[in-house]
User: What shape does this take?
Amino acid sequence: MASRFVIFRLLFLLLCLSDSIVQIHSDGFGINYGQIANNLPSPSRVALLLQSLNITRVKLYDADPNVLLAFSNSNVDFIIGLGNEYLQNMTDPIKARNWIQQHLQPHLPQTKITCITIGNEVFNNNDTQLMSYLLPAMQTVYHALVNLGVDKQVTVTSAHSFNILANSYPPSSGTFRHDLAEYIQPLLDFHSQINSPFLINAYPYFAYKNNPSQVSVDYVLFQPNQGMTDPNTNLNYDNMLYAQIDAVYSAIKAMGHTDIEVRISETGWPSKGDADEAGATSENAGLYNGNLLQRIQEKQGTPAKPSVPIDVYVFALFNEDLKPGPTSERNYGLFYPDATPVYNIGLQSYLPELTYSTASKINVLSVFSLVIYVMAHLMCG
Ligand SMILES: *[C@@H]1O[C@H](CO)[C@@H](O)[C@H](O)[C@H]1NC(C)=O
Ligand SMILES: *[C@@H]1O[C@H](CO)[C@@H](O)[C@H](O)[C@H]1NC(C)=O
Ligand SMILES: *[C@@H]1O[C@H](CO)[C@@H](O)[C@H](O)[C@H]1NC(C)=O
Assistant: This one.
């Protein structure tokens, strides 16, 4: 009797899940699924977690077949990655084609892979050899996609550090570093030619951490504040992320392009840091990511591009215990490895073993559970 009841209750919870009757809108909200850790849940459990949260956009740093397999026949849309170590090989058409055939094509179409990032923050070190491989690698991978007939479903781009800007203030004066112009100009021409977005990893957290007495914490956390007015455009900015996005648009425009969309491939806030990492608290991280999620759900654009909803991948899904560097590096996750939330940002989960976050939703669940309890008694008792 008792065990039958448990089975009924579980079946019903599964029903709730597949019906998605109590989930949130998360259009535009993407998440980076980093795996530099030794304690993460299996990809199939992660698939359940993301399904329960109605998160349908995921960015990987590689093309982990276990992840791509676990998400087959799901509605999750993937960006996969080719790390910097592949750039040189990807300039070879044969190797690029082989890579696509071995790592991408076996997953299509049952796993929705829509984008490949070639290299991550290639301009953020002084490796000019690596920089010179970037565009040829992107072009070669793109041509391989064309030749294999999948260029309409999978696009090619790269993710850059915000540090490639020499100037970002005010946003209308954004410019790229002068020494990178020889690489970035043809790169932008290529983006324009294949109609692919320009991706930026942007962390207002770093601006705050480096200068906590000068940078307003409300401005970086999307909290109410007076904001900043760009003297050239008279546009008012109430948060730093939007100012950073528009600075990138300005830098692209200064190189002659108004036809390339800027998207945020990473942003986030650490919930923990070392003594010298100002602002790294779970309260601030919850505000940053929660306020950002709300703006994404409202489909806000930036002041310079009000009709283009911001497109963001938050960093990151999990805390990653094997990441080197200061404490903050291992504490960007929205979730602990056991899938419990580090803080509440208004994403709700309806898997029985995961945490609920609002009383009203729990009530919905409790009422359904009660109905099932009664039904189970009637049918089995
Ligand atoms: C889940 O998110 C999608 C967009 O990603 C949205 O269209 C859909 O309505 C959401 N489902 C629920 C039940 O909120
Ligand atoms: C690049 O290609 C060489 C030669 O085929 C191979 O030995 C090497 O492992 C490749 N590098 C990567 C990162 O795949
Ligand atoms: C790159 O080189 C410059 C000077 O040439 C130096 O200031 C900077 O720290 C270097 N950056 C990295 C990431 O090595």
